[in-house]
């Protein structure tokens, strides 16, 4: 069992930056691929970024590529999402998720564990 807790969301102006943090419990964290997803009001949840268990592979949605960076610290059971050059369309609740596989995926259905989400609001 893995529990995930996100933090770091908030209100930021367009062009600004935020870093989201996901703290995980569970001894098997280091063997799981991790992902970040987001859901804007009235829209379906969408994939943002993912990283393999060893941090050797990353995968980004086209909408965030070049602006967002996912990273992890397995010693601290933590995964991060650095978000730069934020746009109003990045406004959403951001969720951290864990996949019981070592390899990345952009499909939410392949992630078994989810955090409660953290709100990111980007003003224009």
SSE order and pairing:
Blueprint: E1 4-7, E2 10-13, E3 18-24, E4 33-39, E5 46-51, E6 58-60, E7 68-73, E8 78-83, E9 92-99, E10 113-114, E11 118-123
Parallel strand pairs: 2-11
Antiparallel strand pairs: 1-3, 3-8, 4-5, 4-9, 5-6, 7-8, 9-10, 9-11
Task: Give a structural overview.
Helices cover 0% and strands 48% of the residues. With 124 residues, the protein is an all-beta fold. The protein starts with a strand and ends with a strand.
Short description:
The chain is mostly beta strands.
User: Roughly what fraction of the amino acids lie in strands?
Assistant: over 45%
User: What level of helicity do the residues show?
Assistant: under 10%
What are the low-pLDDT stretches, counting only 5+ consecutive residues below 50?
none
Helical segment tally?
A: 0
Number of strands: 11
Mean pLDDT: 95
Euclidean distance between termini CA atoms: 40 Å
| Radius of gyration over all CA atoms, rounded | 13 Å
Bulk shape: globular
For the largest beta-sheet, the strand count, sense and barrel status come to:
7 strands, mixed
Return the structural class: mainly beta
Q: Encode the helix/strand succession as letters.
A: EEEEEEEEEEE
